[in-house]
Design a protein that fits this description.
Elements: E1 3-4, H1 16-31, H2 39-54, E2 64-66, H3 67-71, E3 77-81, H4 85-94, H5 99-104, E4 108-112, H6 113-120, H7 129-135, E5 139-141, E6 146-147
Parallel strand pairs: 2-4
Antiparallel strand pairs: 1-6, 2-5, 3-4, 5-6
Length: about 150
C-alpha cells in the first residue's frame, strides 16, 4: 500500500486485545443502560472507552505515526483519533448495530502538535484518513513498515 520504510521496532502491546475487548464490552453495557442514565453521560462514557481502544498499545505507541512525529521530539507528540470520537459516538448511539464497525475505526495516530492543530481544521468537513490527506500529513504504518500516505498523492 505504500513505500517500505525503515523498521520502527513497533510491537503490539501484550494486553492490547484484552483492553479492546474490555472497552467494547463496556460500550455494549453503556448502550443497554436505561433512560435513567442521561444521554450526555452515555456519550462521555462511550467516548472514553473509544479513547482507551486507541491507546491499547500505549498513548504514543500507535501503529500509525506521522513522519514528522517519528523524527521529532517526544514532547511535541500528540495522540490523534483518525476517526473523530465525536462522530463515532454519534453513530454508535444512533445505531448500536454499528458498534463492531466503529471499534475497528478506533485508530490512534501519533502526530506533532502542529499537525494535530492542522487536522482540527478538517474535523467538521471529513473524517478518517481523509483528514490526513487534506492536511497533507505523511503517515507511516509502523506494523507493516510502509508509508501509507503515498497513495494519497
Amino acid at each position: 500500500m505504500g513505500k517500505n520504510v525503515e523498521n520502527s521496532g513497533w510491537e503490539q502491546a501484550p494486553n492490547a486485545d484484552k483492553i479492546v475487548a474490555s472497552a467494547r464490552s463496556a460500550i455494549a453495557c453503556i448502550l443497554g443502560m436505561g433512560n435513567d442514565v442521561l444521554e450526555e453521560h452515555k456519550k462521555v462514557l462511550i467516548s472514553r472507552m473509544l479513547w482507551k481502544i486507541t491507546e491499547a498499545h500505549g498513548k504514543y505507541n500507535t501503529r500509525y505515526c506521522s513522519v514528522k512525529a517519528l523524527k521529532g521530539s517526544q514532547d511535541d507528540r500528540r495522540h490523534d483519533h483518525v476517526w473523530t470520537r465525536k462522530r463515532m459516538v454519534e453513530r454508535i448511539l444512533e445505531d448500536p448495530g454499528v458498534l463492531e464497525h466503529e471499534v475497528q475505526l478506533a485508530i490512534g495516530c501519533t502526530v506533532t502538535k502542529a499537525e494535530h492543530d492542522k487536522l482540527r481544521e478538517y474535523d467538521t468537513l471529513c473524517d478518517g484518513w481523509e483528514r490526513y490527506k487534506r492536511a497533507r500529513i505523511a503517515v507511516l504504518d509502523l506494523k507493516e513498515n510502509t508509508r501509507i500516505s503515498d497513495v494519497w498523492k
